[in-house]
Backbone:
């Protein structure tokens, strides 16, 4: 059975990179070595693997990768930290806990 991996890397600039691969070892090595100058992670090395999930269905892996890319930084951090209560909280009301309230400087839902 072939496995597919969705992963989150933390870059040297504290940003996150989300990807999917069927050969996670090779893919992580490519990120670290900077094989492609046009890659998001090229100028943000070194990178650290912060989260990974296995899938047996490539379509589900790709769908989840796309979903994660749409999540706020707070929600990604909750996933990485396995903070399920916070993850659920940020999933329930994006307008209250998402980017909009952060830009307004709202203290609601702050860490």
Residues:
């Amino acid at each position: 059975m072939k496995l597919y991996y969705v992963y989150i890397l933390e870059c040297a600039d504290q940003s996150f990179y989300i990807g999917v691969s069927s050969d996670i070892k090779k893919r992580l090595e490519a990120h670290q070595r900077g094989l492609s100058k046009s890659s998001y992670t090229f100028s943000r090395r070194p990178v650290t693997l912060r989260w990974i999930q296995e899938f047996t269905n490539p379509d589900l892996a790709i769908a989840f990768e796309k979903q994660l890319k749409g999540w706020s930084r707070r929600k990604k951090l909750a996933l990485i930290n396995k903070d399920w209560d916070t993850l659920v909280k940020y999933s329930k009301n994006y307008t209250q806990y998402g980017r909009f309230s952060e830009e307004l400087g709202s203290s609601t839902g702050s860490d």
Strands lie at 4-10, 16-21, 48-55. Helices lie at 24-33, 58-69, 73-80, 84-92, 94-97, 99-104. Residues 100-111 have pLDDT under 50 and may be disordered.
